[in-house]
Amino acid sequence: MARPAIQLYTLREFDEPLTETLLRVGETTYEGVEFAGLGDESPDAIADALDDAGLVPVGAHVGLDAFESDYAATVERYRTLGCDRIVVPSYGEGGFGSVASAMETADDLSSVADRLVADGFEAHYHNHTYEFAALEASSRFETAYDAFAAYSDDQLGLEFDVGLAQHGGVDPTTYLDRYADRLSLIHLTDTNPGDDDTLHVDLDEGVVDLNACVSTAAAADVDWVIHENGLTTDPEATLESSSRRLQELLDDN
């Protein structure tokens, strides 16, 4: 059964150490957290805070530049946390402009996945919006995301962000169903398409059919449903409302 987690980028505006934020999350119904950096604190201190809060480190968003600058130190940080899922959070719009560029992106990220898997980690790719632009009519793929998925190694998991997919113009449940065998993490985000200022909104303030997405994710047997609102102006309220709402959705499915 899928469990609830929060992407900690949502809570970055709290004026407190990350260890204190983890304790705050531990007081909610969230069972796990996904990292977006570790701030200025040591991996050992964060590991202790996770234990104190009773939280699972479900994954970490790590940019490709971190692997290029110091791969060994980067993976060791997350190994110390007991975090064995590494997620590349974006690749860039240029990597999804055509079938050819999507194939190159697939090659690049598959190589990263090979290295991470060899070192005992799972590797995942998190979509944005631009991956879902329609391709030329002559293509056998609907979107560059489809081409990327077809040409990337199966050991590269797909952390599917439903709100960003909807903002990009596709039905997220179609894609959750289409790539069910490569999903263990999904991002449950809400959105109002057409404006970057509403790329993320709080749950139930956008147009995403949250129940359908959670139901489809549950059918795909995902491990974690992760909420993110990277644009919230009130992280305390978002933490409280999202933990309650996500638990309701999981209970109903």
Question: What is the CATH homology-level superfamily?
Answer: Divalent-metal-dependent TIM barrel enzymes
Number of strands: 8
Number of domains: 1
Strand order of the largest sheet: 1-2-3-4-5-6-7-8
Cα-atom radius of gyration:
17 Å
Can you tell me the CATH architecture?
A: Alpha-Beta Barrel
Instruction: Give the strand content.
Output: 15-25%
Structural class: alpha/beta
State the helical fraction. 40-55%
Number of helices: 9
Low-confidence stretches: none
> What order do the helices and strands follow?
EHEHEHEHEHEHHEHEH
CATH C-level label? Alpha Beta
What is the CA–CA distance across the termini? 9 Å
CATH topology: TIM Barrel
Polypeptide structure, described:
- The protein is of the alpha/beta class and 253 residues long.
- The chain has one domain (3-252): TIM Barrel (Alpha-Beta Barrel), CATH 3.20.20.150.
- The protein contains nine helices and eight strands.
- The protein has an eight-stranded parallel beta barrel, surrounded by six helices.
- Strand 3, helix 3 (64-81) and strand 4 form a beta-alpha-beta unit.
- Helix 1 runs parallel beside helix 2, helix 2 crosses helix 3 (64-81) and helix 7 (172-178) runs parallel beside helix 8.
- The model has no long low-confidence stretch (mean pLDDT 96).
